[in-house]
């Protein structure tokens, strides 16, 4: 029986990798979603029930109907608490969605961003509308329609934009001045440094100076632009992102403290210990023991 389950999962993953998209209805959460890991695909779930979602270093406990956005670069796990759990799930690769002219909406949505909230509460009226969209995608993936991939991408865009409309406007209002453009490039570059997948490939850009050199701008100009747009310094953004990754690695890998330190670009573990304690008030070992 176990071999059959493994074979079915393997076939599912192979089909998903080949097609770049999969939609299906769920009646209960699977064991697979309870394993904290970095997924290979973007994931959008419309679910009704009670659950606990562990996302990066945060936990969201939800009851009722929610829309969940999973980013393949951010590790997460899902615990189903209620006995009945229903809804829909779609999985898609970045390559599948990049063929859409509206692929920028993935980056525009705060739901897919580190530091954002990947969960959106849904009213019964919104659920009825979204149910229809998910059902259309499930039906379309089985059809012989020549342009079904483009139609499915349109449905994904529709879900994302409907979700953006549910957010306060200030969450996605964008300024187009030079400072905002430079800040956007910096934040995107910062995000591309993560996740740290292996100790053999440590963090490359670790300081504001590194980012200034990489972006070919003077460090003072970069700092002014980032501070003007976000209210925080370049160094503060880098520090917060490294701490977020450090917490995720401490909680959800079996790497030693030394391995995590080197993976995050620290020359010596003691430097990492001091850095972590200064930012969190506790040392890495105590954080790991307390949070697990």
TrEMBL record:
SUPFAM superfamilies: Homeodomain-like, Regulatory protein AraC. InterPro entries: Homeodomain-like_sf (IPR009057), HTH-like (IPR037923), HTH_AraC (IPR018060), Tscrpt_reg_AraC-type_HTH (IPR020449). It holds the Pfam family HTH_18. The keyword DNA-binding applies. Keywords: DNA-binding, Transcription, Transcription regulation. The gene is btr_4. This is Bacillibactin transport regulator. One of its GO terms (molecular function) is sequence-specific DNA binding. Coiled coil: none annotated. Residues 180-290 form the HTH araC/xylS-type domain. PROSITE patterns: HTH_ARAC_FAMILY_2.
């Amino acid at each position: 029986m176990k071999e059959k389950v493994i074979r079915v999962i393997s076939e599912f993953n192979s089909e998903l990798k080949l097609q770049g998209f999969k939609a299906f209805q769920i009646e209960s959460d699977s064991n697979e979603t309870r394993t904290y890991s970095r997924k290979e695909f973007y994931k959008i779930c419309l679910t009704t029930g009670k659950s606990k979602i562990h996302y990066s270093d945060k936990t969201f406990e939800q009851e009722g109907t929610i829309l969940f956005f999973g980013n393949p670069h951010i590790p997460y796990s899902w615990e189903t608490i209620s006995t009945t759990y229903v809804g829909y799930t779609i999985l898609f690769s970045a390559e599948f969605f990049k063929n859409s002219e509206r692929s920028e909406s993935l980056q525009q949505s705060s739901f897919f961003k580190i530091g954002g909230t990947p969960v959106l509460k849904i009213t019964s009226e919104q659920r009825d509308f979204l149910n229809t969209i998910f059902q259309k995608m499930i039906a379309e993936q089985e059809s012989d329609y020549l342009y079904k991939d483009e139609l499915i991408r349109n449905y994904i865009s529709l879900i994302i934009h409907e979700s953006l409309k549910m957010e306060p406007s200030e969450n996605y209002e964008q300024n187009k001045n030079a400072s905002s453009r430079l800040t956007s490039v910096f934040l995107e570059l910062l995000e591309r440094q993560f996740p740290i997948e292996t100790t053999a490939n440590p963090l490359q850009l670790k300081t504001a100076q590194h980012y200034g050199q990489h972006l070919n701008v003077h460090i003072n100009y970069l700092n002014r632009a980032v501070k003007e747009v976000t209210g925080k310094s370049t160094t503060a953004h880098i520090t917060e992102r490294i701490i977020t990754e450090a917490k995720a690695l401490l909680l959800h890998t079996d790497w030693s403290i030394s391995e995590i330190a080197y993976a995050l670009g620290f020359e010596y573990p003691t430097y990492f210990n001091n850095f972590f304690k200064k930012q969190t008030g506790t040392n890495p070992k105590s954080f790991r023991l307390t949070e697990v």
